[in-house]
Input
Amino acid sequence: MSDYWERLDRLERRNPRLMILLLVVLATVVTLLLLAKSEGAVVLYQAF
Amino acid sequence: MTQAGNAAPREDAAWYETRLSILLIIVVIATGLLVDRLASSETLLDAVTKWELARFERGETFFSNRGNFLEFEDRLILDEIPKADFSRGGAYFFGSSDLKWSLKTWELPAEVRPFVGNFGLGGMNHTFELQFIRHLVEHGGLLQAGAERNLVVLGVAHTNVFVAQEPERAYFATLWPRHGLFAYDAEKGILPVEISPLSRFLRIKKARWSGFLGGDVNRAIRFAVEKLGFSISAESSIVDDPEALRQIARRMHRNWEEELPVQLGELGRLFDYLRRQGVPVAVALLPHRRSLDELPLIHAYGDAVTKLCAANSIPIVDLSHLLGDDDFFDLSHPTARGLARTHEHLIEIAMPHLRAIGAIGSERRSSGQGSGT
Output
């Protein structure tokens, strides 16, 4: 596991802007998923 | 290394992390604001609706009139009804999905649209219809203009009988509590939930956001699946096979002999309720596929409702054979061509009332280019 963290750390040092971009994308996707979450049964197309 | 030498990188790191945290907070807020903006954008809605309607006219898909929401019903409950102006009266259509998809309210002239409500909900029987109308009358201000300035048009069909099983698991029962704004009880019907104005505001916002995102993801998936040549509905592949359709309808009609008297009793209670309120009522027997004519429930229901209307002095318009089999998109919902005919005939029922309350000039035609959903 620590190996993965080290590789991630090296990647961040080599491409700091790429890591920030990935974080921004991740934050956007998670926000969209949270906003899209709905509750209850949904019937998109009733055949009757 | 000195303490001063260690402090500078630590301060740099702390400042870096602070900036990163602020950036992420900005991203979250900006994403929320963007979604909120798009979810309430009339321009985007008009463009998407125009695109969907064009595809519907070409027979490529079904137009469910759901606006920026996941479903027609969410749009109706969260947007159309709360915004409706009941202070001047109007004509309101109630029924199941075969009613809600039989009106082209978006084509009504803009000045007439506020007076016409397409209040059909999927999977309705007459028990649910009574609960819905009672909710609108007792909590929604439906009759605030005076009962006689309103017309209730009930679009009825054999489909109102076969959705009655397991009421607590019915679509209607699960629809209302969905966003935490209402509760539902099989006996008491729809119950408003006591929450603070802020909670109500946030729950409606959340419903709009999820409806917009879910609805557009759904649109995109449907478009992709249909473009790839797959059918969305299991029925789509058998719409030209009358016997296969009859088999589906027979399964839906199971226990109809037990359920029909129950639903007729509920329809009678609905008539009684509306009579006590003083609301004029009309009934339309909605079109069904002619290939279903031989099924016993079709005629048993039509005959019984006709007699019930006669006994209650309620006018009934029989549209049951208005459409041919090729005017249906699936078992019971019309194509664009079928919809044009059902809309014309259903609106015609409301025309004398709309003229009487001054919602429409005597020279105006029943439909024309307008705006709205």
Summary: Chain A touches chain B through 21 residues (CB under 8 Å). The radius of gyration of chain A is 19 Å. Residues 37 and 43 of chain A are 15 Å apart (CA to CA). Helices of chain A lie at 2-14, 16-36.
